[in-house]
C-alpha cells in the first residue's frame, strides 16, 4: 500500500448490509489483501461490553434489544479508534448504520475526521440470514465473528469461541427489522453521492470477493489508493 503522508482525515471504504450478509468476512479479506486497517464497529462495541465499561453496560442493553446505539456514542467510539490509526485509508464494517450516523460522519469530514469514499452494500434475501447466523461464533477474547468453523482466531490467536449473546432468533429478526427500516435512506444518501456499489451476497464467498475487488479497482483508478 502506498505510504501517503499521515493525515488526520481518514478515507473510508464502508461495508454495509444486514446482519449475516458477510460484511465481516468480506471486509477482513480486503483488509488482509491490501493491509488497510479494519474498523469493525460491532467488534468494538462487544469489546466494551466484555470489559464491563460504563459505555459497555449501556451498549449491552441496546444489543439485547436488537436496537442501534445512539449516534453520539457511535461517533465517539469511532473517533477514538480512528485516532489510533496512522494510515490514511480505513475499511469500516458496521458503521454508518443509519442516516443519522451517515450525516454525522459527513458533518465531521469538514473538521478532519473521516470522508467516506465508497460504500459496498451486500444484498441478501431474509431467508438466508438466519441460516448463516445460526452457525456464527465469536472469539471470546477479541469478539471477532466467524461464520465458519475455525480452530484459531486470525485476529488474536485465541482458541476459545462462543455464540454471541445477541444471536438469538428473536434478537436477530428484531435487528433485521430495524435494519430494513433504516436502509433506504442510507442507500439513497450514498447513491446520490455516486459512492454506492450493490453486490448480491447470497453466493459463495469467493464470488462475492471478486466483485468487491472490481469495485475497489474503480476506486483505485479514481483515488490512487494503491
TrEMBL record:
Keyword ATP-binding assigned: yes
Main location: cytoplasm
Pathway the protein takes part in: Purine metabolism; AMP biosynthesis via salvage pathway; AMP from ADP: step 1/1
Binding annotation for ATP: 20-25, 136, 203
UniProt key word ATP-binding: yes
Homology family: Belongs to the adenylate kinase family.
Name of this chain's protein: Adenylate kinase
Organism: Holospora obtusa F1
Gene designation: adk
Amino acid at each position: 500500500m502506498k505510504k501517503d503522508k499521515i493525515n488526520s482525515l481518514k478515507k473510508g471504504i464502508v461495508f454495509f448490509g444486514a446482519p449475516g450478509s458477510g460484511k465481516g468476512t468480506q471486509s477482513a479479506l480486503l483488509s488482509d489483501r491490501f493491509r488497510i486497517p479494519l474498523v469493525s464497529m460491532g467488534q468494538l462495541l462487544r469489546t466494551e461490553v466484555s470489559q464491563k465499561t460504563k459505555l459497555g453496560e449501556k451498549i449491552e442493553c441496546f444489543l439485547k434489544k436488537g436496537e442501534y446505539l445512539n449516534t453520539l456514542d457511535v461517533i465517539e467510539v469511532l473517533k477514538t479508534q480512528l485516532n489510533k490509526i496512522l494510515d490514511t485509508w480505513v475499511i469500516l464494517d458496521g458503521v454508518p448504520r443509519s442516516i443519522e450516523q451517515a450525516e454525522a460522519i459527513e458533518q465531521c469530514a469538514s473538521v478532519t475526521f473521516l470522508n467516506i469514499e465508497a460504500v459496498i452494500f451486500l444484498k441478501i434475501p431474509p431467508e438466508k440470514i438466519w441460516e448463516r447466523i445460526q452457525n456464527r461464533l465469536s472469539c471470546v477474547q477479541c469478539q471477532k465473528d466467524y461464520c465458519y468453523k475455525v480452530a484459531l482466531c486470525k485476529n488474536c490467536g485465541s482458541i476459545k469461541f462462543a455464540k454471541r449473546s445477541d444471536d438469538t432468533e428473536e434478537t436477530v429478526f428484531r435487528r433485521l427489522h430495524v435494519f430494513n427500516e433504516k436502509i433506504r435512506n442510507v442507500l439513497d444518501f450514498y447513491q446520490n453521492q455516486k459512492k454506492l456499489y450493490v453486490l448480491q451476497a447470497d453466493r459463495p464467498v469467493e464470488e462475492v470477493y471478486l466483485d468487491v475487488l472490481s469495485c475497489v479497482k474503480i476506486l483505485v483508478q479514481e483515488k490512487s489508493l494503491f
